[in-house]
Design goal:
Elements (H helix, E strand, L loop, with lengths): L1 E5 L3 H12 L5 E5 L3 H10 L4 E2 L2 H7 L2 E4 L3 H11 L7 E4 L5 H7 L8 E6 L20 E5 L6 H13 L3 E5 L1 H29 L3 H7 L2 H7 L6 H10 L1 H23 L3 H12 L2 H15 L1
Parallel strand pairs: 1-2, 1-4, 2-3, 4-5, 5-6, 7-8
Antiparallel strand pairs: 6-7
Helix pairs in contact: 4-5, 7-11, 11-12
Length: about 290
C-alpha cells in the first residue's frame, strides 16, 4: 500500500507516522509546496520520498489531502481527473464547499470527505506526533456518493489510526463544526487580542496568567494560514454562532452593569449543565481505551 500525503504539517505528518508504524502503508510519499516543510519531513523520516503533485496519483493507492481548505478546492480539481482507481481522501475542517466541487467531476466516487476530530495549536512537520488521533471520532460526509471501495479504504485507514467513524451529511457537519470547533478558535483569538490590547506590559501577563487563562487562550497560537480559510468557507455558520455567542456575552455584561447577581447565577448554572455531557464523553473514552 503506497500512500501519498499532500500537506506535511501536524495532521498530515501525524497520519504518516502511524499509518507506517501500524502497518497500513508500506511506503509514504509526501507532497508540500513549502520546500522547507518537505525537506524537514524527509529528514524526520515520516515520509520515504518527496514527489511532485503530478506523480502522486500515478504512484499511489491512496492520496490524502491535508492542506488548508482553500488549497484543497484547487487540488481536488487537479487530482480527481487523473484518477483511475486510486482513492482521494480530504481531511480538512470544512466539507460542503469541497464536496460541491468534487460533485462536478466524473470521478466523484473515488473521493471521500473526512474530518478527523483531532489536533493541536502547533503547525509544521515538527508538530507531528504519534497517537494524535487515538480514540477520537472521524466524520465521513456524504458517503452515498463515494464508491464502496473508497469508503472501505477510508474506514480501514482511520481504523488503523484508532478512530471511530460517524457518518453525516456535509451541511450538518459544517454547522456542528462551527459550534464545537470554529467558535472555540475565534474566542481564543479574541481573548488574546483583548489581553494584548490592555496589557502592554508583557511581564504582567506572564506573572498573572494562571492555568485557566493559558488553557483558554491556547488556541490563539493556531496558524492564521489554516484558520482564515476555514472561517471564510464556513462563514454563514460561523457568523450565526458568533451572533449567539455575542448575545450571551452581552447578557453577562448587562448583568454586571445592573449588579444582577441572580442573573449571573442563572447564566452560569445554565452553562454548568454541559458538565454531564463532557463527563459522559470522558467516561466513554476511558471505556474505549480499556
Amino acid at each position: 500500500m503506497i500512500v501519498t500525503i499532500i500537506g506535511l504539517g501536524l495532521i498530515g505528518g501525524s497520519m504518516a507516522l502511524d499509518l507506517k508504524k501500524r502497518g497500513f502503508a508500506s511506503q509514504i510519499l509526501g507532497v508540500d509546496s513549502n520546500k522547507e516543510h518537505a525537506r524537514r519531513a524527509e529528514e524526520i523520516g515520516f515520509v520515504d520520498a518527496i514527489v511532485d503533485l503530478k506523480d502522486a496519483a500515478k504512484l499511489s493507492n491512496v492520496i490524502i489531502l491535508a492542506v488548508p481548505v482553500d488549497a484543497s478546492i484547487q487540488l481536488i480539481n487537479e487530482i480527481l481527473p487523473q484518477l483511475d482507481s486510486q482513492i482521494l481522501i480530504d481531511v480538512g475542517s470544512t466539507k460542503e464547499p469541497l464536496i460541491n466541487v468534487a460533485n462536478q467531476h466524473e470521478n466523484r466516487n473515488l473521493f471521500l470527505a473526512a474530518h478527523p476530530m483531532a489536533g493541536t495549536e502547533f503547525t509544521g512537520p515538527d508538530s507531528a506526533i504519534s497517537g494524535l488521533f487515538d480514540n477520537n471520532a472521524v466524520i465521513f460526509c456524504d458517503v452515498e456518493n463515494s464508491s464502496t471501495k473508497a469508503v472501505s479504504m477510508a474506514e480501514k485507514l482511520f481504523t488503523t489510526l484508532n478512530m471511530r467513524r460517524i457518518d453525516m451529511d456535509a451541511k450538518s457537519h459544517d454547522v456542528h463544526a462551527a459550534y464545537v470547533s470554529h467558535i472555540s478558535h475565534i474566542s481564543s483569538f479574541a481573548l488574546a487580542l483583548s489581553v494584548l490590547h490592555k496589557e502592554k506590559n508583557e511581564k504582567n501577563i506572564f506573572d498573572m496568567a494562571s492555568g485557566g487563562f493559558t488553557s483558554t487562550v491556547r488556541l490563539a497560537k493556531s496558524s492564521p494560514a489554516m484558520w482564515a480559510p476555514i472561517f471564510l468557507q464556513n462563514k454563514a455558520n460561523v457568523t450565526e454562532v458568533l451572533d449567539t455567542y455575542i448575545n450571551f456575552l452581552y447578557d453577562f455584561k448587562l448583568a454586571l452593569f445592573n449588579d444582577d447577581e441572580k442573573r449571573l447565577y442563572e447564566l452560569m448554572n445554565r452553562a454548568n449543565s454541559i458538565q454531564p455531557i463532557l463527563q459522559n464523553k470522558e467516561e466513554k473514552l476511558v471505556e474505549i481505551t480499556k
